[in-house]
Amino acid sequence: MTNLKTTVMTALFFAVAQPVLAEKGQNVCESMGELAYMVMELRQEGVPMSHVMQISDSDLVKAIVVEAYDYPRFNTQGYKEKAAGDFRNEVEVECYKTVDFD
Fold it and tell me: What is the pLDDT of residues 67-93, one digit of tens each?
């Protein structure tokens, strides 16, 4: 991946991630899932973890980044998309386990 592509992807992550978590009208677990999907996309594209961690300003985002980078990186687009979707679902499951539905 070129440095320009890395810079653009990390900037996009920063621009989108924080508003996703801050959005009030959206389900928190759905927002976390979207964030997890974006982080895994960065991971699958080969963006260095240190770049993503530098722009992660909350412990929650950092924890998601660390988890994503524990996953293997795939070569084919289909496997990359599957990894992102699976990671999103795992994050959402853990979130829904902690949510009080009352």
Answer: 999 999 999 999 999 999 999 999 888
Please, what is the Cα angle at 18 between 82 and 72, to 5 degrees? 30
Cβ pair 31, 61 in contact under 8 A: no
pLDDT 10s digits, 6-60: 554 555 555 555 555 555 445 788 888 998 999 999 999 999 999 999 988 788 8
Domain ranges of the chain: 3-97
Tell me how far apart the terminal alpha carbons of the chain are, to the nearest angstrom. 46
Q: For residue 91, count CB atoms less than 10 angstroms from its CB and return exposed for 0-12, middle for 13-18, buried for 19 or more.
A: buried
